[in-house]
Amino acid sequence: MRYLRQLRRANRRQVVYDLLLWIGLCVFIAAMGADPFRDPAGFALMTLPRWGLATAAVLVGRRWPLAALMLLLPLGPWKFSEGFATVDLTWLLPRHDVKILPLLPTSPFIIWYAYLTGRRATRTAPALMAFCLITLVGVAVVVVMGGDLALWVSMVTALIGTYLVPYLLGVLRGRLLHQRAQTRLSVEAQARLRERARIARDMHDSLGHDLALIAVRAGGLELAPGLAPAQVKAAGELREAASDATERLRQIIGLLRDDAEAAPLAPLEKPAEEPVEELVPDLVRRAAASGMAITLDLAGGPMPELAAAVVQEGLTNAAKHAPGAEVAVSVSPHLVRVRNGPPRSRPTARRGGLGLTSLRERVRAEGGTLTARPLGGGFELAVTLPREGEEDPRGS
Which residues, by range, are in coiled-coil regions (predicted)? Predict the structure, then answer.
């Protein structure tokens, strides 16, 4: 029952295709037999068994083309009266009409199944054993017919042209299809990794920044005068919860990101109707409203597209690693700097996030340089971007 289920066609198209293949094969087999009107008995004796072989070959050929090839072995190119070409070899052989690549009406079908055998082959041992058997049949036919050297030439060309060459073409086609499928899977996997990296970046830029500001607000509320001990305790628990959430977010981002995958190089996405110049002041305004001591220095000229990403990363790191510190933000057309002083309370966030790594790759893609270093007990994040037409000194 299992083998019968494997013989079932997957759709109507396969049924129609195999039916047409069977009809064509039966018609060509009938053309090879005796005249059904003059010799009905001879026609039935020769053609009906061949029709049975053809039926079995078409039934199993889609699933097991090598089995179909062996079923059609009696219908192979074993008559050397007609060939693809006739060569005059009187200088070498007594006979002058040597048939090169003998052909029969069934030869195209055999060639097709030999091609399918190579295309779908997963192991070479079964095909090698089958070709050895086919070669033995060819040798036996030549010996029975007298062993003439011209017959040997015809038989060898028949084996090469009808069986070997189509099989090798099928193997080549199968490997090309496999390589194409592997390439497609690799491209899809890379696309998934890039999407995961994009999601990780968005989570880091948005949720990480908001959680850091929540922790700053809670820290400021915890130190506010006039609060009851229960309220101070609640503010402290809120600050610790925000810090724990930031740490869990960092772990999730680490799972989404892949160490072997480069950080996304696309610029920071922003609404089309919102100009870049409004993003940095909004970020600074939100941070100041949360309780950060922050100053902003905007130079004249257009802001770089990466300014918002740099400022957001600097403010988030200052909020997590230097709570209570004074922060100075300066933005010019070719330099963005975020500098914070020493922390006034113990940081609760761990080091080792991926924010600076991702930002560094984005800056490198723009031809700029990123510097992140301790400075005066605090920390400085600076991004320098080349001027228009200026060559990148680092070869980014």
Answer: none
Q: How far apart (Å, rounded) are the C-alpha atoms in residues 193 and 356?
A: 19
What sign has the CA pseudo-torsion 42, 43, 44, 50? positive
Strands (E), 4-154: 83-87, 98-102
Sheet (strand 335-340) strand order: 293-298, 326-332, 335-340, 378-384, 369-375
Give phi and psi for 224, each to the nearest 5. -70, 140
- The Cα–Cα gap between 216 and 221 comes to 9
Q: Distance between CA atoms of 207 and 199, rounded to whole angstroms?
A: 11
Domains observed in the chain: 2-186 (no CATH), 274-396 (3.30.565.10)
**Using CA atoms in the order 168, 173, 175, 176, what is the torsion angle rounded to 10 degrees?**
140
Which pTM does this prediction carry?
Answer: 0.55
The per-residue pLDDT for range 237-290, each reduced to its tens digit, is 777 777 777 677 766 766 666 544 444 444 334 434 334 444 788 888 888 877
Residue 162 burial (10 A CB sphere; 0-12, 13-18, 19+): buried
Residue type, 296: L
Within 10 A of 374 (CB to CB), how many other CB atoms are there?
Answer: 9
Per-residue pLDDT tens digits for 213-228: 777 767 666 666 777 7
394 contact partners, CB below 8 Å, separation of at least 6: 369
